[in-house]
Each structure stands twice: as structure tokens, then as C-alpha cells.
Amino acid sequence: xxxxxxxxxxxxxxxxxxxxxxNCRIATIGPGTRINITxxxxxxxxxxxxxxxxxxxxxxxxxNPSCTIxxxxxxKFPELQALMLQGEARVLEDAAAxxxxxxxxxxxxQMGRKYNGGHGQPPANDPPPNNASARGxxxxxxxxxxxxxxxxxxxxxxxxxx
Length: 162
Hints:
Elements: H1 3-7, H2 11-20, E1 23-29, E2 35-41, E3 43-45, E4 48-53, H3 56-63, E5 66-73, E6 81-92, H4 95-100, H5 104-114, E7 140-153, H6 157-160
Antiparallel strand pairs: 1-2, 1-5, 3-4, 4-7, 5-6, 6-7
């Protein structure tokens, strides 16, 4: 078995990582051939990543939906755990597209709980959902659907070296 499969996260570990970590990094293709990498808060459901944001990443995804997302935790090499997802994202351009998405309501509630108190205010006992919606020219929900994933759990390295 290749080393990458021996180090792979289990499905339960992937769910824990994706539901417990606050930040992902999304890499999009910017103007020309430059890569634009941005840390973002995110939601996770049905094997998809949901991000609400604005600016260059939205413009980039409209032009080229190909992107990569990575979610990782821990800092020391023997403790690193990560999931890298490659695929395409679509931009939900208006309230009708948001309403038509079968998972956005769940993600709004999930993100409301996950980031409760994350803007420096005290956490609410019953946090409201993330009700952000399309506005202006570039404030949008982006829905990322992976077609390839690679994960690693460096805690497993110790057992492989025996």
C-alpha cells in the first residue's frame, strides 16, 4: 500500500477536521497565471465546502471555477493532519440561487454555531445562523465540490517506522 494511503485520515477524522477547524485556505487562479490563496471561514456538508466572501476570489471563480482547498490542524510535523480538496466552485449569484441550493440552510446554521463569538463578541446562548446573502457585485456564497482529495495524519508516521 502506498505511504499516502497509510497516512490518510479516516472518514470520521475528516468529518471531525472539517466540522471542528475554523479556517480553510482556498487557492484560485487570479488574473493571468497568478495563484490567489486566501484563508476563509467555511461550512461543510454533503462533501462540499461552503464559503461566504467577497473580492478577488469571487471574481477568480467566475472566470475559472477550478480551485484547491486545504484544511489543516496542528503545527509540529509529527502532529499535522490535513485534507486537501481539488475541484470546482460555483458562485451563488443571487437570492434565488441561494434558495435553490439544497444544503445552504444547513450550512448557515452550522456556521452560526461554529463561529459563535468569533468576531470578538461574547458567544450567544442560541446563536443565529449565518444569514449572509448576495449583495453588491462580489459578496457571494461559493460552493466547492471536490473531485479529488488527499489527506494525511502524521500521527500515523510513528507506527509506520516500527
